[in-house]
Amino acid sequence: MLKRADWVAVLQKALARGGDFADIFFEEKETTIITCEDNRIERINTGIDCGAGIRVISGETTAYAYTNDLSQSGLEQAAQVAAKGVAGAQPGTYVFDLTTPSARVPAPVIKELPEQIPVENKVEAVLAANTAARQADERIRQVSVTYGDVKQKVVIASSEGQLVEDERRRLRFVVNAIAAADGVIQTGYNAVGGVVGWEFLQEEQPAAVAQDAARRAVLMLGAKPAPAGRMPVVMAGEAGGTMVHEACGHGLEADLVQKQLSVYQGKLGQEVASPLVTVADDATLAGKYGFYRYDDEGTPAQPVTLIENGVLVDYLYDRHTAGKEGRKSNGHGRRESYHYKPIPRMANTYIAPGKEDPEDIIRDVKYGLLVKKMGGGQVNTTNGDFVFDVAEGYLIEDGEIRYPVRGATLTGNGPRALQQVQRVGKDWGFAIGTCGKDGQGVPVSDAQPTILLEELVVGGTATGEKKIRRL
């Protein structure tokens, strides 16, 4: 590991030809991935990747170079490459007395470090999940299980005088099950994980995770075709916050706003959602999959309220986008690895819980769709239009959950959907995933309580159509 004077020397090389700002992102990442398919372990991948990325910013121009040569000379050579990208720029004001800003939250407490658990134990957990899913029902035809853990050490030094050292860990466990009967094929998916240790899998038992995926696949085999048309939609808390992440969150990332690629551009201070809706992103939520103490620019993580009681109050910024508006980053500069420069990204995005009983919300719906698990989808951030698949849905009639339906899709517009939120439950459910943007993926989680949307377009099948009754 380099000394402080060495980091300073590299930063000076990066700014030798001018520029407003420079930083170094050093990373050492250890990963383990175990996959089971067709009743056998298909792969066990373990590895270490080390490198550093060096960025120089001058006005609207960003130059970036990365290297695996972590010697002093190797880093200085990469810094010189980045410096050439802004050659002739005016020199900025630099601070090379490096200090560490205080994190707002303590380091997470992890009882059993995943990297210290024998690979054999991890394989055993994966195989146990495979067996549990297959034994759940004779109609289960295929099962895939993936275990992954990551240990990441980072050092971030900047010409603004910051030096941050941090250690991060994440663990995830994913099960996909496929069921088939009478020519019908359905899938079930379940994923758990977080910034946690091996003890997490003692709480979230691999067998239970697998059984839930298998249950969903089998349930959808017997489901009726979904109705089609405009109708009220209840999104259960257990569905996670896919809707808020995709239909809302990306449009609140400052780079898309500044490029005028967001439906929320120019709407600060305006009502963009129901007064019942408050949306926030909080990287400091302990244990959640998107947790971090410092972002990938060394800015301490902080909770950021984006929409408060329906009114748009903020966006998600990294240092570069914040600088364009004369403000400071709010800790959302993230990157997949040292290969990439940071960009504004979500972490743990959610709709805040309300005060209502979820059962009361369902009880007051005369006819509609209950969504308990979201699938994939597409979103146009420019206008907010979205289409999502429903992985687990049920028909509601006269306030009762009648039967499961399959083949449902949700079509709508993000801001309009948020404006149609009529009820907000007091529950709260999280989902995890890897969010893709500009070719990079970062770990995130999202959450919401049970909410009632006055009306969405539900796509189904002709055989599932029925006259829609209003609330």
TrEMBL record:
Keyword field contains Protease: yes
One Gene Ontology CC term in the entry: cytosol
Keyword GTP-binding found: no
Sequence ranges assigned to domain Metalloprotease TldD/E N-terminal in this UniProt record: 22-84
A single BP term in Gene Ontology: proteolysis
One Gene Ontology MF term: metallopeptidase activity
Any Pfam family: PmbA_TldD_1st
Domain Metalloprotease TldD/E central: 113-221
InterPro entries named in the record: Metalloprtase-TldD/E_C (IPR045569), Metalloprtase-TldD/E_cen_dom (IPR045570), Metalloprtase-TldD/E_N (IPR002510), Peptidase_U62_metallo (IPR051463), TldD (IPR025502), TldD/PmbA_N (IPR035068), TldD/PmbA_sf (IPR036059)
Superkingdom of origin: Bacteria
Family: Belongs to the peptidase U62 family.
The protein, known as: TldD protein
Organism: Carboxydocella sporoproducens DSM 16521
